[in-house]
Amino acid sequence: xxxxxxxxxxxxxxxxxxxxxxxxHWDAIGVLSPSRRTPGGYRxxxxxxLIRLYQVLALRSLGLSLESIVVCLDAGVDSARVVSxxxxxxxxxxxxxxxxxxxxxxxxxELATDQGATPETLLQALxxxxxxxxxxxxxxxRHLDTDQIRRLDAQATALGPAKHYLLEIEWPELYRRxxxxxxxxxxxxxxxxxxxxRRMDELSALFTGADAGVSVxxxxxxxxxxxxxxxxxxxxxxxxxxxxxxxxxxRHDPTRD
Length: 257
Hints:
Layout: H1 9-16, H2 20-29, E1 36-37, E2 43-44, H3 47-61, H4 66-74, H5 79-111, H6 119-129, H7 135-143, H8 146-159, H9 162-183, H10 191-208, H11 212-224, H12 226-230, H13 237-252
Antiparallel strand pairs: 1-2
């Protein structure tokens, strides 16, 4: 039923296409909890709850796990950002492909003539296919070989739009949580720190295809130059390394199960 203040589970499930069982499960694990209860004890979802439901469904459509969604929403992601970021990525991909297409069309036309392609056109085509590597790729190239870079790129492509949220929202949020615990003097063996380390390892496995060699190379690249890898020149390298060492102690603590 609906009330003057909101929706109960049944009508909300029917309207949204989400099952009642799923809504109950999301409530139990903290993904989406109703703000109120009716006098009869029924869960009652408000307008703000419906906004969060939309955000959850939008992020799920991008391939994020429920755990990632909770982190992202708690970090302040809204539905407008989900749509605009996805749209921006699609438009950037289309623009890049169009640039490559135009240069290849010109190269093909010149190759069809008796004179062949000019050096200028060949260089433009090569530039369109390769391009200058960003700072993070330059650091990775020092720690990974060509095959490992190719596997890393393939994994990132397979993640699609979820890559942005996992790498640029959830990963930094996990890092901030670990840093807060470290500054509070919480021991690395504490379950809270271990959970953060496990989740970061799960994300690492997603991006590296669980390839141990690639994982080591990526970790070494972050340790080498965290500012370049994060894309934030203001990242304090010593602080990042201190948190990385803190998480490593959580992973390797002899009392860990």
